[in-house]
Design brief:
The complex is a heterodimer.
Chain A lengths: L2 E5 L2 E3 L5 E8 L8 E6 L5 E7 L8 E3 L7 E6 L4 E6 L8 E7 L4 E2 L3 E5 L2
Parallel strand pairs in A: 2-11
Antiparallel strand pairs in A: 1-3, 3-8, 4-5, 4-9, 5-6, 7-8, 9-10, 9-11
Chain B lengths: L3 E4 L2 E4 L4 E8 L7 E6 L6 E5 L3 E2 L7 E6 L2 E7 L7 E7 L6 E2 L3 E5 L1
Parallel strand pairs in B: 2-11
Antiparallel strand pairs in B: 1-3, 3-8, 4-5, 4-9, 5-6, 7-8, 9-10, 9-11
The chains are: A mainly beta, B mainly beta.
Chain lengths: 116, 107
């Protein structure tokens, strides 16, 4: 059974940092291209970042709205993907989903609230 | 970035109707178009991929089509369980972009 479990969300003040972790199982993680997608309180879905696999040199891509502030990374030995979020803004408040859009695997999501 | 203009924003339909939701791409996307259904508190569930292919386990009352750069999701004789929010997603180019969503209520 495929599982993606996100952790690390919570309430954080503007300007602070937070790191999300997505632990996966049930598929060949090392071959997967992994994404983070977020959903605003208004229910709008937004792709955030992608990291490809080793054969694609672990290439990373980011939405313009997070470029320079967020960093996606992965550890194939732990079948995990991460999202380091720095300089958080109130507009980053959302549910963050770990997903492989290409393979259609989704986690249950984790809430991140940025507020003073 | 490719813009996906989804309509309508909300829809109330009876169980006897045919429901149609559309997404118009701002440029050609070569059928790299998926449709998702989302229920409250759940992650999006894939219904259609590559514009017209039904995902595993999805009922045959769901179908996808294309006309030019406009893509459509059709639900024939919807069931009460089909209530939720529907999104399109283009994965032709980075960044992948979603439509704004269509909230479907069955009456």
């Amino acid at each position: 059974e495929v599982q993606l479990v996100e952790t690390g969300g919570g309430l954080v003040q503007p300007g602070k940092s937070l790191k999300l972790t997505c632990a996966t199982s049930g598929f060949t993680f090392s071959n997967a291209w992994m994404d983070w997608v977020r959903q605003s309180p208004e229910k709008q879905l937004e792709w955030v970042a992608q990291i490809k696999d080793k054969s694609n040199n672990y290439a990373t891509y980011y939405a313009e709205s997070v470029k320079g502030r967020f960093t996606i990374s992965r550890d194939d030995s732990k079948s995990s993907v991460y999202l380091q979020m720095n300089s958080l803004k109130e507009e980053d408040t959302a549910i963050y989903y770990c997903t492989s859009i290409l393979w259609d695997y989704w986690g249950q999501g984790v809430m991140v609230t940025v507020s003073s | 970035d490719i813009q996906m203009t989804q309509s309508p924003a909300s829809l109330s339909a009876s169980l006897e109707e045919i429901v149609t939701i559309t997404c118009k791409a701002s440029q050609g996307i070569d059928d790299y178009l998926s449709w998702y259904q989302q229920k409250p508190g759940k992650s999006p569930q894939l219904l259609i991929y590559d514009a017209t292919s039904l995902a595993d386990g999805v009922p045959s009352r769901f179908s996808g089509s294309r006309s030019g750069t406009q893509y459509s999701l059709k639900i024939s004789r919807p069931q009460v369980d089909d209530s939720g929010i529907y999104y399109c997603l283009q994965s032709y180019s980075t960044p992948p972009t979603f439509g704004a969503g269509t909230k479907l209520e069955l009456k």
